[in-house]
């Protein structure tokens, strides 16, 4: 797994290990401390120990050299929730429908601001954040959200404050809104800069934030600005982290996207098990990406077999969904009920 500062990766690593052991495998989980070189050393250590399968949530395409080593050793490699870019040395990717993740964020803003009834005489104001430029998922999250929001921007009823890449393909502007390494301090500093400059003379109605860690940092910056002490902008998120679920319950963060990572871990281990046993891959609750969605599995060198699970948008009205799914510890769930 890539790091521990985004809490979901801690849960994922532990869930993957537990699922593998449940199926009788010896399994180990390690976290790369947000350093690709460290993760590569961990993977090389697994190869030296004779690993038969590697499930990798990478940081960036720097992992390609050790994936090539794994391929030479005939080790099964499964990219886990992050595509390994610029590599032709693996065949499987398991993730959520990440374009839909962004769509759910865009739809959250659309509903909260009632954009269908907004007018050019009184346009709503939004500022845009994206995830790490080294994470291919960030492109799909952003493009999914903008597929919902761009029509309102084009109509003039939604006005962007700050840089506005229409899609991630506008590389120069996308770089300006991207958040290196998904680091909360970077998002907070950028939000503070926006509030003191581009957004100084307007009131923001919404902030497109790609995940919960960044959403909370953005909200923290807003709370320090007198304009937002009684009414925060609508802020999106992703991962259904407990702190953000509490923030939603308390009326601060507006929404998150629940990706049931326990199901993702279970599906990833089932995929590994079937491939190792030479069986036909059949994973309940997933679809094999095809058509436009096949791009989710395009490494730039090949299209890999990509299995997609469905994400769920969560607001205060359906906060019970991740709770009922057993996503939180018992003490956390009790606070959210």
Kindly list the characteristics that best describe this protein.
337 residues; alpha/beta; Rossmann fold; 2 domains; 5-stranded mixed beta sheet; 4-stranded parallel beta sheet; 12 helices; globular
Summarize the structure in short.
This protein is of the alpha/beta class. 42% of the residues lie in helices and 12% in strands. It has a five-stranded mixed β-sheet with strand order 1-2-3-10-9, with helices on both faces. A four-stranded parallel β-sheet has the order 5-4-6-7, sandwiched between helices.
Please give a structural write-up.
This protein is of the alpha/beta class and 337 residues long. The protein folds into 2 domains: 7-90 and 260-309, 3-Layer(aba) Sandwich (Rossmann fold); 98-258, Rossmann fold, CATH 3.40.50.2300. It has helices at 7-22, 36-48, 64-72, 98-112, 136-155, 171-177, 184-196, 212-223, 242-249, 261-276, 320-324, 330-336, and strands spanning 53-56, 76-80, 92-96, 124-128, 158-160, 206-208, 234-235, 256-258, 287-288, 305-309, 312-314. The protein has a 5-stranded mixed sheet, with helices on both faces. It has a 4-stranded parallel sheet with strand order 5-4-6-7, with helices on both faces. The chain has a two-stranded antiparallel sheet with strand order 8-11. It is globular. The protein starts with 6 loop residues before the first helix and ends with a helix. The relative contact order is 0.14. The mean pLDDT is 96.
């Amino acid at each position: 797994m890539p790091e521990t500062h985004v809490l979901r990766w801690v849960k994922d690593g532990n869930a993957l290990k537990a699922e593998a052991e449940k199926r009788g495998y010896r399994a180990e989980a390690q976290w790369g401390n947000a350093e690709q070189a460290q993760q590569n050393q961990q993977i090389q250590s697994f190869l030296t120990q004779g690993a038969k399968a590697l499930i990798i949530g990478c940081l960036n395409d720097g992992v390609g050299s050790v994936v090539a080593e794994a391929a030479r050793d005939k080790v099964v490699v499964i990219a886990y929730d992050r595509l390994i870019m610029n590599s032709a040395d693996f065949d499987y990717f398991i993730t959520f429908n990440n374009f839909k993740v962004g769509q759910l964020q865009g739809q959250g803003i659309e509903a909260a601001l009632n954009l269908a009834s907004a007018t050019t005489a009184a346009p709503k104001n939004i500022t845009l954040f994206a995830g790490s430029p080294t994470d291919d998922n960030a492109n799909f999250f952003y493009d999914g959200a903008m597929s919902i929001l761009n029509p309102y921007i084009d109509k003039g009823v939604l006005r962007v404050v700050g840089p506005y890449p229409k899609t991630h393909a506008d590389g120069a502007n996308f770089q300006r809104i991207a958040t290196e390494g998904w680091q909360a301090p970077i998002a907070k500093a950028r939000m503070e800069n926006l509030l003191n400059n581009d957004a100084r003379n307007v009131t923001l109605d919404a902030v497109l934030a790609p995940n919960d860690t960044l959403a909370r940092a953005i909200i923290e910056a807003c709370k320090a600005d007198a304009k937002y002490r009684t009414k925060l902008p609508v802020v999106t998120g992703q991962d259904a982290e407990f702190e953000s679920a509490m923030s939603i319950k308390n009326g601060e963060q507006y929404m998150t996207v629940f990706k049931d990572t326990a199901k993702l871990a279970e599906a990833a281990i089932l995929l590994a098990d079937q491939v190792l046993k030479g069986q036909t891959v059949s994973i309940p609750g997933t679809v094999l990406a095809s058509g436009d969605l096949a791009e989710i599995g395009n490494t730039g060198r090949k299209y890999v077999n990509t299995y997609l699970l469905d994400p769920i948008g969560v607001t205060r009205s359906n906060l019970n969904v991740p709770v009922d799914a057993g996503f939180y510890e018992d003490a956390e769930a009790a606070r959210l009920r």
